[in-house]
Each structure stands twice: as C-alpha cells, then as structure tokens.
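Now for one specimen:
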Amino acid sequence: MSRDSSRRALSASILEEASSWVIELSEGELDAQQRVQLDRWLRSSPQHVQAFLEISAAWEESSRLKAPRDAELDALIARVTSESNVVPLAASKPTTPVRREPRSLVQRLAIAASVVLATGTLTWWAVARPDSYSTRIGEQRSIALADGSVVQLNSQSQLRVRFSKNERLVELSRGQALFEVFKDASRPFIVVSDGARVKAVGTQFDVNHHKHGIVVTVVEGRVAVTQPNATQPTYLAAGDRVTLGSNVAPRTERANVDSAVAWTHRRLIFDDTPLTEVIEEFNRYNVRRFVINDASLEGFHIRGTFDANKPERLVTFLSQRFDLSVVETQEEIRLTLKNTSASQ
C-alpha cells in the first residue's frame, strides 16, 4: 500500500472512530470507563484530536443537532492536547449538552455515516477561517493540518493556514517550516512567503524565510516556485534548492537534503556559510543572542555541524579558528576580531 493510500485509509478510519465518540457523547454522560477510553484515544494521536473537533464542529453546525460538548469534555481535550505527542488545536466554543432518548442501532449507524460523509463538505466550515501557529525561541512544533498534511515548524516561526475547496493556502510570515503535503490534485498546496509562492500537490519541501531571502529545498516530489512580480515559475525536483532575493534572479542548485532538514533534530549543518547566517540560525534557538561587533567578521564563512542548543560549542570553534575577543553577558555573546589581518 502506498503512503498516500495508507494515509487516506487511516483518515477514514479515524473519522469513523471520532463519529462514534460524538454520537456516544450526544446520548448522555459517559461512564468512568468510557471516559478513560476516550482519554486514551485522544492522547494516542494528534489526528484523533483534530478528527474529533472537526466532527463536533460539523455536528454543531447542523440545524438538527447540538454539539455533544460539555465543560468536563473541554477540560479533557485541553489536557490531552497539552501532551507532547498531541498537536494543540483550537476547540469550538462549548455549548450546553442536550440529553436525548437512546437511538436505535440503525439510527446510530445512519447518523455516523451521514456525519462522516458530511465532513467532506462541512469540514470546510471548520477550516475556512485562518488558523495561526507560532513558535517561541527554541520551540519547535509538529502541526497536523485538516487535509492530512503535516508541518514541522521551526523556532521563532509563524504561519497562517486557510483552506478552501479550490486550494490549500499557507502563509509563512517568518521563520522556517518543513511541509509534508498530502496529495490532492484538485486542490494544490500553496505556501506564500515574502511574496514568493511555492506550489505543490503531494510532496515534501522546506521553506526558510530569513533576512537574506527565501530558500526552498525539495525533499521529495516536485514544486513550482514563483518569484514576486515574475510570470514564469521555477520548477524544482527532489534534491533541488532555490534561493530567492528581492533584487536578484532565482538561483537554483543541488542541495544536501539531509543538511536542509537537520534542524528538525536540532542540528545545524553549515557548508561555507557566511557567519552572519550562522549567527542568525543560532539566535533562533537561544535566548542569549550572538552579536557581531566587528564588521570584518561578516565576511567569514563557516563549515561544521553544531548542536543548536549549545552555542558555547560555536564560541569554542570560532575562538580556535579565528583570533576573537569574546565578551559574554547574561543577554549576549559579543564577537570581535582581535587581529583584523587574520586570515580564514
């Protein structure tokens, strides 16, 4: 079974399970054992939480039914979404639960089927409004989107997600993200960052929005990248990378894919990288920031692999490689070149 078909089958199964829980909750209070079971089911996967909220939203929107949500259930969802293996999702506004007479098995199956089928349409209500995600210094997040795509969001990053029937639009306003796109030929997946557009159907690619421009690296599949004010896109295949700047033409080259996505393991790999970019990357992960106090250092280039959470190793590397003066305070690590005639 291919990855896409496996994911599609999994999504259908999860939606069916979520529908069953929604129906159980609509018919009255769960007993202690059932609540433990629901707690375990929600904790086991972020997709379970997302499916449950989407089915609940579809249920709540129906003119015939009320959402099976109560304060205790909202507390349960809040608790399980706080776990490290569950993606935080915005819950709907709680409503007063409605007690109903028990339905027959045929009625329950019919409702379950209608909810699952309706989700294909009504889910758009849940995702039409933009969802925003952000990370702080040193924080990384894994975000399961409503279509089955997954986003790995790097530190100090921010994105907004807006899905419609015709396209899946994501805006990366700052930072870096790795996108694993669920294939849907009828709705292209588009990432917009600083005016550049990255269009894909089903693929995996990394977008890095930093102060020097936008870098797009394709891990697998193909994407089309369009520069701001350009009419023709640049097509990239797996292993390609393009760098986009405001005043330069797109530069396409072969990339080390492992290096491009090493940040997901908090590893930073530099290959002849300007020191200014190295400092920018380290400052993403650490509250105590590097500051270059000597303009002559900006032209230096770095090769090496570092732990993003251990800036002291970069200090040691730079001190051994160059004749540096390092001044450390609680807020900053200031770098100055002692001997301006020193070579690289």
About this structure: The chain is about 35% helix and 30% strand. Helices lie at 3-26, 32-43, 46-61, 71-81, 105-128, 257-260, 275-285, 311-321.
